[in-house]
């Protein structure tokens, strides 16, 4: 508290009064958030939904900065338990426990009986467009997906090219969300049945308009009369 008071240039009792809601202005709240590396929207999110629907900026930054921490968290978010992370992900016990402790301090997971843990956010939690997790996903996870061999025997994928309005894309996005829920229902059924051959499997659903200039660049660059490959 003394460090916060010094950073704000006020006495410590003044900070205590502000934190009790006495005389706290929006400008001062912005200053406090800046010193604590928070976003004002994070406080609103925590107050309205207890952090269940959206990551705070501090949580995003922590996950984006540590790929191991992010792996542990998202695995737990999708049903993994510490014993799974040690066995299936080959995470050393000491490193795993450090990650679990940090996730608890960040308010992302909580302990349950028997050494089990659970995420404190919903599986459908969202991160900011263009934010730390979005950037980290584009830099590491997306290339991993796109580098996979889609012709492999164990690959299942669908691709298509269609013309849609904004309203049409919104309808498809709603179908994505419904399908995502169905997929997780299947996951829960297989987990309950204790099927022995389950493997962690990547699932990527993507929808966005083409940049037609980029798509047709090769055709427009071809000289008239030159044959192009079929």
In short:
The chain has 230 residues and is mostly helical. It has three domains: 1-36, no CATH class; 49-147, Arc Repressor Mutant, subunit A; 149-207, no CATH class. It has helices spanning 2-8, 12-19, 26-35, 40-49, 57-65, 67-77, 82-88, 93-105, 132-146, 166-193, 212-215, 217-221; strands at residues 109-111, 117-119.
Characteristic key phrases:
single chain, mainly alpha, Arc Repressor Mutant, subunit A, two-stranded antiparallel ribbon, 2 strands
Explain what you see.
This protein is mainly α and 230 residues long. The chain folds into three domains: 36 residues, no CATH class; 99 residues, Arc Repressor Mutant, subunit A; 59 residues, no CATH class. The chain is built from twelve helices and two strands. The protein has a two-stranded antiparallel ribbon with strand order 1-2.
Reconstruct the topology from this structure.
Blueprint: H1 2-8, H2 12-19, H3 26-35, H4 40-49, H5 57-65, H6 67-77, H7 82-88, H8 93-105, E1 109-111, E2 117-119, H9 132-146, H10 166-193, H11 212-215, H12 217-221
Antiparallel strand pairs: 1-2
State the CATH architecture of the largest domain: Orthogonal Bundle
Query: Which sequence of strands runs across the widest sheet?
Result: 1-2
Looking at the structure, what is the overall shape? Answer: extended
Structural class: mainly alpha
Average pLDDT, to the nearest integer? 81
Number of domains: 3
Percentage beta strand: under 5%
Euclidean distance between termini CA atoms: 69 Å
Helix share of residues?
55-70%
> What's the CATH class of the largest domain, please?
Mainly Alpha
Annotation, overall tally of beta strands: 2
CATH fold call of the largest domain = Arc Repressor Mutant, subunit A
Poorly predicted tracts of residues:
44-51
Number of DSSP helices?
A: 12
Largest sheet: 2 strands, antiparallel
Rg measurement, Å:
23 Å
Strand and helix order = HHHHHHHHEEHHHH
